[in-house]
Amino acid sequence: MTAGTASTGRADDAGAAGEPLIEFDRVTKSFGTGPEQVTALNGVSLTVGRGDIHAVIGRSGAGKSTLIRTINGLTGISGGRLVVDGEDIAAIGPGALRRKRRDIGMIFQHFNLYERRTVAQNVAFPLEIHRLPQARIRERVARVIDLVGLSDRAGHYPAQLSGGQKQRVGIARALVTEPRILLSDEATSALDSETTLQILHLLQDIRDRLGVTIVLITHELDVVKHAATHATLLEHGTVADSGRVRDLVLDRSSTLGAALFPHRLDQHGRHEHAGELLMVTFEGNLAAAPYWSQIARVFGVDVTIVSVSSDRIAGTWFSRFHLRITPAPGGHDEDAPVPLTPIAAWLRERGADAVPV
Ligand SMILES: Nc1ncnc2c1ncn2[C@@H]1O[C@H](COP(=O)(O)OP(=O)(O)OP(=O)(O)O)[C@@H](O)[C@H]1O
């Protein structure tokens, strides 16, 4: 996707990338009282860094919508502390909350466009509410419409647009107030897979150009895989897993990491080759080095590739091998145990993640 040539909006001038911007500290949220009470968030602690694209994933009812709506104060919290860009959301007054909301754009699954307004009029709407002068409104609207690649559709009505184009209008409208934070509530759930990818690329482009921090909720792993720098798995209102996507993929104990990049060796293979198998995961182009022949020479073993898988996750290629290591005839002492642990250490020294399985 090419997103036009505009360098719109306020680049993030208030801090360095990665520093905490949104901090949930044991946040709870309950709806109703007594036996009817539902606890949607149950002690959520979570940090979103400036410039991150943080995906919150979970099943229906896990608390995702509730969580994202607490960030702009659409839903108040019941307990804990939530700090957004240095301000305690529960403690600020209504005027300050209104100002804060200008700093937080939001996009929706069903776009929420005004059917009787053109693309340009939809995008202009938030600025009209803020009573900006017409000339500034026109200039800003043109800039964001260009950014989302819809300059040739500015005079069209929503009914004349595809789903992907409608979401681009939603994104332009969310960005026209030059927010620091963009919240995405299942923004690609109503789109086909190709359009989903285009919208996710647009969000990444916006993050790169404007420094906007993005929190998106989704129930689709592919969205996390293609767009997110960080991810959190919510289960029954609690954080079941959270971290940088790259770290999650390399963390063998991570539920999300295993879902994003499955370990993929059936129990049969695992059982049959017990004591001989290494699982090796490479990030980036490390897998291009001639490690297998080097291992064979250095350790006097034979190396058989039992399985291999690779995938592009968070913009990086990962590849994972299951290797069977057996004594080479005339090489390693055939009665000694196969040196899995030293081979794993040797690979780790070279930047791979390697572990006997
Ligand atoms: N306004 C409300 N009043 C009462 N209960 C609510 C309200 N909003 C959410 N809940 C309840 O809180 C829990 C979490 O809901 P939430 O919408 O945050 O989940 P979700 O993960 O976004 O689900 P989905 O993917 O289906 O949208 C659910 O049990 C839901 O019924």
Commentary on this structure:
With about 350 residues, this protein is of the alpha/beta class. The protein folds into 2 domains: about 240 residues, Rossmann fold; about 90 residues, Alpha-Beta Plaits (2-Layer Sandwich). It has 12 helices and 14 strands. The strands form 3 sheets. Strands 6-7-8-3-9-10 form a 6-stranded mixed sheet, sandwiched between helices. A hairpin with a 2-residue loop joins strand 9 and strand 10. Helix 3 packs across helix 4, helix 3 packs parallel to helix 5 and helix 5 packs parallel to helix 6. The protein binds adenosine-5'-triphosphate. Adenosine-5'-triphosphate binds next to strand 2 and helix 1.
Measured distance between first and last alpha carbons: 41 Å
Q: What is the structural class? A: alpha/beta
> How many structural units, i.e. domains?
2
Number of helices: 12
Shape: elongated
CATH superfamily of the largest domain: P-loop containing nucleotide triphosphate hydrolases
| Record field, number of beta strands | 14
